[in-house]
């Protein structure tokens, strides 16, 4: 965990995702799930931050490619690819902490219908 997460104080207003896409996602999530307590709001904020980080990773992969050369000239997986995998895993964990079923059954409908 990062020091920023550990230093969070209940009731403190934290800025979530800087992009409009992330802000819109978190705002809709808060509205649909009624995230009222500080812990749930912080988890929602983390999802917004993850969205921005994923976009940065994907931009780096588009710019540099999926593989890069190490100092010995051998191909290796781009660090942004490894980071993207890690963030995607954290995204899923955060969803579960909020009680969101990612694999909703067809009769349940979508969270954002």
Which secondary structure elements does this structure contain, and how are they paired or packed?
Blueprint: H1 3-6, H2 20-33, H3 38-64, E1 67-69, E2 75-77, H4 79-97
Helix pairs in contact: 2-3, 3-4
Verbal overview:
The chain has 113 residues and is mostly helical. The protein has one domain. The protein is 57% helix and 5% strand. The protein has a two-stranded antiparallel sheet with strand order 1-2.
Computed structural class: mainly alpha
What's the end-to-end separation, in Å?
33 Å
CA radius of gyration: 17 Å
Stretches where pLDDT is under 50 for at least 5 consecutive residues are 1-16
Strand content: 5-15%
Indicate the overall shape.
elongated
Domain tally: 1
Largest sheet data: 2 strands, antiparallel
- Helix fraction? 55-70%
Number of strands: 2
Give helix and strand order, one letter per element, not per position: HHHEEH
DSSP helical segment count:
4
Calculate the mean pLDDT score and round it: 77
**Strand order across the biggest sheet?**
1-2
């Amino acid at each position: 965990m990062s020091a920023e997460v550990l230093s969070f104080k209940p009731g403190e207003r934290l800025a979530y995702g800087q992009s409009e896409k992330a802000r819109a996602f978190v705002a809709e999530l808060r509205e649909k799930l009624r995230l009222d307590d500080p812990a749930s709001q912080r988890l929602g904020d983390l999802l917004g931050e993850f969205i921005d980080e994923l976009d940065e990773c994907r931009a780096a992969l588009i710019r540099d490619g999926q593989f890069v050369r190490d100092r010995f000239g051998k191909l290796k997986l781009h660090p942004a690819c490894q980071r993207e995998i890690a963030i995607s895993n954290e995204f899923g964990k955060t969803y579960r902490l909020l009680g969101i079923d990612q694999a909703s059954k067809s009769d349940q409908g979508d969270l954002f219908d």
